[in-house]
Give the backbone structure.
Amino acid sequence: MVSLRFPFLFSQPPKPNPKLPHTKPTTTASTFLAASAVVSTAGAAAIAICQDPKDPFLKKALNSLFSNKSNHCSLPLWGSLSLAENSSSSSTVVESKTGVSFPSVLDDSKRLLGIGLRKKSVLGLKNIDVYAFGVYADDNGLKKFLSEKYGKLSNTEFKENKEFNEYLIENDICMTVRLQIVYSKLSIRSVRSAFEESVGSRLQKFGGSDNKDLLQRFTSQFKDEYKIPRGSLIDLSRERGHVLCTKIDGKEVGSIQSQLLCQSILDLYIGKDPFDRQAKEDIEHNLASLLHK
């Protein structure tokens, strides 16, 4: 599961000591004000860490505020939320390595299932982070699909089901793969070339070698006139009837009705040999959580 780290502060009030003498009101007020100051400081530090989770100084400062040498409080400082639980339409999920954020809900109805990173090897010497991606599925269609097909399975049985991803890829559930460009020197020509290779191999895998025209129809949507600087968005969406709709920065650049093409695109991200295996595992974990929610 893709786990999101958020600074939830867990505190436990100290147990009253009956042997302590009665505290004067002025002392109590001072103690309350001091405690309020600590909580305010911790809250500010927590917000700062949300804004910059990689800052070790902020994390150390917040941890030190709540350290307790007498072990009165043993609860962890950092809480964890899964994507399945964090589905508010106003919330976002951050890809930890690049800092790229994705909305938890897309188009009012599509739930974020997982995020990942597409890397490309350069001359076998180094890997470049090309784009981060998020995989979404229509919430109602997904729940119906899960309950009808796998509702009787336990979470363990569901995770062990090897046919699930293939069935999801082939089905007519509305899904979107959102790509957010990370590599600042990426050109639309490079994107077109990369899809010719990756999508072309999947078209051959699922439909044989005679699909050059279909591949050309898809890749020709990525015209040289489009600029894709860092932060640009490319949405590849399977709509009802197995229609693949392509958008660049919110503008529709083409649509193609083809179950084979939709299947080939989704296989790149959640198929047997995905771009990011950890992302695929996270998606499967989140789907298992949704199964009995």
